[in-house]
Amino acid sequence: MNQEIRKIQLKCLEILEIVDKICREENIQYSLCGGSVVGAHLYKKCLPWDDDVDLMMTRKNYNRFIQILQNKLPNGFSAHNYQLTNDFQTLFTKVMNDNTTVVQQDGTVSGVFLDITVYDKIPRDYRFKWDILLWKISQVVTIGKIEGKNIKTRLRNLVLSTILKDKIKYLKFFQQQVEKLGDRSKVYSYAELFGAFCNTKPYEPEIFENYAEIDFEGKKYMIVRDYVKYLETRYDRTDFREPKEKRVAPHYKYVDLSMPYKKYIETIVRI
């Protein structure tokens, strides 16, 4: 294993331990997410090439979590989303080690972080045009663009980016609308509408309504009980091993695990 990646993983695991402790004390359910589930399933640890740890929560658990999070974090750690801070205006939460620096491929500077994605209830008839428009606009607000390369998509990105200048206002609006859609739905699925990838892929509700524990990096952490079904839904396959050409750490182009990221930003500004 690349030793640099392992050092980042260990910093992520420190954050995971903090979040796990908070959730257990407050009776909040969470689950390992994405590649972290694959790692736990195949190796009982982080994937050797993965340079982060991801968690997920249902909206009900997530809303409770962010209400108490800032007051529960120890010194040197912080939480970021559009409700808590101005520097990372996202509809998911980053829990960050403030005494480290990582620069992502797009140039974003932060501390080593753990992402917590929220899964919302969506009606089974979510493909109605209004709901799709809501999702697409949320992409512009959350990640800055609607995915796609054709001229129509580029024009839509330009128009929506111009209209939606008050980002916080629209983030609140989209979250409220999605919660209303979910709350009034008797037949629903779950979806990662406002995560890092923003998609409407439906997950069976039973996946997010039953939890267990799994061995991961020598400790036990929470996971959705039917995590194999979760992985099959997420990746559209039953073999979760990545081909060798995809076994690369995609996130960071610069790492300094001993420098606070705000100090790094100050240094860059002075230059």
Mean pLDDT: 84
Order of helices and strands: HEHEHEEEEEHHHEEEHEH
- Give the helix tally: 8
Shape: globular
Give the biggest sheet: 6 strands, mixed
Which blocks of ≥5 consecutive residues have pLDDT under 50? none
Could you give the distance between the termini? 35 Å
Q: SS-based structural class?
A: alpha+beta
Q: What fraction of residues sit in β-strands?
A: 15-25%
Q: Looking at CATH, which topology of the largest domain would you report?
A: Beta Polymerase, domain 2
Gyration radius from CA atoms, angstroms: 19 Å
DSSP summary, beta strand count = 11
Helix content: 40-55%
- In the CATH hierarchy, what is the architecture of the largest domain at level 2? 2-Layer Sandwich
Q: Number of folding domains?
A: 2
Give the CATH level 1 class of the largest domain.
Answer: Alpha Beta
Describe the structure concisely for a colleague.
This protein is of the alpha+beta class. It has two domains: 3-119 and 202-270, Beta Polymerase, domain 2, CATH 3.30.460; 122-191, no CATH class.
List the helices and strands and how they pair.
Blueprint: H1 3-26, E1 31-32, H2 35-43, E2 54-58, H3 59-72, E3 77-80, E4 93-97, E5 101-104, E6 109-110, E7 113-123, H4 129-143, H5 151-163, H6 167-183, E8 188-191, E9 211-216, E10 219-224, H7 227-235, E11 252-256, H8 261-270
Parallel strand pairs: 2-7
Antiparallel strand pairs: 1-2, 3-4, 4-7, 5-6, 5-11, 7-8, 9-10
Helix pairs in contact: 4-6
